[in-house]
Design goal:
By secondary structure, the chain is of the alpha+beta class. The protein has 2 helices and 6 strands. It is elongated, with a radius of gyration of 16 Å. It starts with a strand and ends with a helix. The relative contact order is 0.23.
C-alpha cells in the first residue's frame, strides 16, 4: 500500500511563469517521507532520531508536467527496495483534475541508516524492515 499525503501549494512555491519551481518537488517528497515514517512507526515504535536516524544519500526527480498554484496535489510514497544498511524510497507526485490523478513528477531517494552517536552507518532496524514490507 502506497502512503498518500496532500500537499498545500504555497504562493512562494510559484515562479514568475506561474509554475511551482522544480526545487519544491523535492521538498514535497521530503514532507511525504516524514509523514510516511510517522505513519509507519505509529505508536508502537519510538525512535530516538538524535541517536539512530536516516541520511539522504541520493535523490532524483523526473519532471513530467507543471504544477500550478491552484492545483490539488498529492504525493504517494513507498519503499521499493530494502538493503542491509539502506533502502530506496520512491514517490509519485500527482495532481487531481476532474477527479482523475495525473502524475506530474516521480522521484527516487536512497536513504542510509545512521547512528549519530558512533558516527557510523547501521543496519536497517528489523522493526523498520518488517513495517516497510507490510506497507508495500
Amino acid at each position: 500500500m502506497k502512503h498518500k499525503i496532500q500537499i498545500q501549494i504555497r504562493f512562494k512555491d510559484v515562479d514568475k511563469l506561474g509554475h511551482v519551481n522544480n526545487a519544491n518537488h523535492i521538498t514535497y517528497f521530503e514532507l511525504a517521507r516524514v509523514d510516511y515514517f510517522n505513519a509507519l512507526m505509529g505508536e508502537d515504535i519510538k525512535i530516538d532520531w538524535q541517536k539512530e536516524s536516516l541520511i539522504l544519500a541520493k535523490i532524483e526527480m523526473e519532471y513530467k508536467l507543471p504544477i500550478l498554484l491552484d492545483d490539488k496535489v498529492f504525493v504517494y510514497t513507498w519503499v521499493s527496495n530494502i538493503g542491509t544498511k539502506s533502502f530506496n524510497m520512491e514517490c509519485s507526485i500527482v495532481k487531481e483534475i476532474n477527479g482523475v490523478e495525473i502524475e506530474v513528477a516521480k522521484g527516487l531517494a536512497i536513504i542510509v541508516c545512521f547512528n549519530y552517536e558512533t558516527n557510523k552507518t547501521i543496519e536497517v532496524p528489523e522493526q523498520w524492515k518488517n513495517k516497510m514490507i507490510k506497507m508495500r
